[in-house]
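> tool_call: predict_assembly(chains=two)
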Amino acid sequence: MTRVVLLEGLREVPADTPVLRADDLGVVRGESVFETLRVVDGRPCFLDEHLERLARSAARLEIDLPDGFRELAEKAAAGAPDAGLRLTMTKGGVGFAVCFVVPAETVRGRTGVTAVTVPLGVAADFRSTAPWALGGVKSTSYAVNMATLRHAHELDADDAIWVSTDGWVLEAPTSTVVAVIDGVLMTPPVGTGILAGTTLLACRRLTEILERAVSVEELARADEVALLSSVRGIAPVVVLDGRELGAGPVVKDLAATFEASLR
Amino acid sequence: MTRVVLLEGLREVPADTPVLRADDLGVVRGESVFETLRVVDGRPCFLDEHLERLARSAARLEIDLPDGFRELAEKAAAGAPDAGLRLTMTKGGVGFAVCFVVPAETVRGRTGVTAVTVPLGVAADFRSTAPWALGGVKSTSYAVNMATLRHAHELDADDAIWVSTDGWVLEAPTSTVVAVIDGVLMTPPVGTGILAGTTLLACRRLTEILERAVSVEELARADEVALLSSVRGIAPVVVLDGRELGAGPVVKDLAATFEASLR
């Protein structure tokens, strides 16, 4: 079941109904902003945090964000037991929500994923000095994110972790990286131009996660690694660049605490 | 007048008709490929070259490109005296053409544009070694291109020229760069991950344009600079990073020869 609800009039339409014009700048130039949320028992999780990030992304792309996204999210999620929810606002002025069944592969990821590190080609401090590079903005210009995931799949991995040219860990194409090093949970700083993760934010309310630069060498000897994202949740990285890590106790604990907090 | 024609059935629809679903991957992830062409006397210019590039981009994004784009382009362009034409194919399986009036600002650009150099944050050889970075692919994930143009506008320039971290000229967000240095026309190599320009290709049939690495220092002392793109054509860069260049004789000659070749 996929449910599509338009912001205008909070009107539900059949999922196969076209809703976007051929000349919408969101379609033509990838100039839309979006958020993907998890829905538990009909309730969109961390809706405040997602709406705040949606507003920040919209400001950066100079997209007018109308009121009503909260009501839109709640209406689209209502009645869904455990689902995913995507909120989108195009530069052409169309807002909509899509509530969708979480793919089985995504659910499986909660028990563990394999990952490879992949160069992003930029230095860790570039995007903080170059606003036009849109670091930290969640837009629908995601073709490179998707191509990076396909590249990982070609290397028989489920996911990828981008690293900078100067040897720092950045983020995954659709997740935030957390590493456990010498017993301490840590995550790369948003000053590297990565997306400020909403799942990370929620986890930092549950346990201490240090925000500090993590080098590629540190990642390579980390005791545990996890990828945090809204719908998949907390995915332990069980194999990283061919090294067997397994699902360790710190990440398992965090995942259990996090999952419990959603109910 | 904007004319929208769908690939399916070569059916013309009113421009304000929605044609794309909310869950089309082209909408959701910027995973569509597109081409923008100039239309002269009802004929799409350099259609073969654009269709070849569309096919190359589609292969890189793993988008199925059905037959019929030639007929689609010809139908959408028919009767338009001087216009722009955008061909798009989404990963969700929707192909369409939009024929549009060339904006007055674009036409003005043919007499000269001002430009600034802007760092892209990558080395000139990165994208040729990193296929996931999608160098040379014309996808609708264009938010960074548009943000770079907005950045140029904030600096009171019409356009931007991306440069690499190691000091080489790359491309403009929607154009190819050509420089005249010591009387020789030259353009950066596609090995830098830039888009292979169709207007450049057409110009190289009319005059010799050397493909060789151009350094930022060389650009800064170039006699003439031009930006080549399909709809705007050949735009002399009359001011670059604040330096007055004017529209010089070599670019003026090329532009006149090129415009004549379209009729």
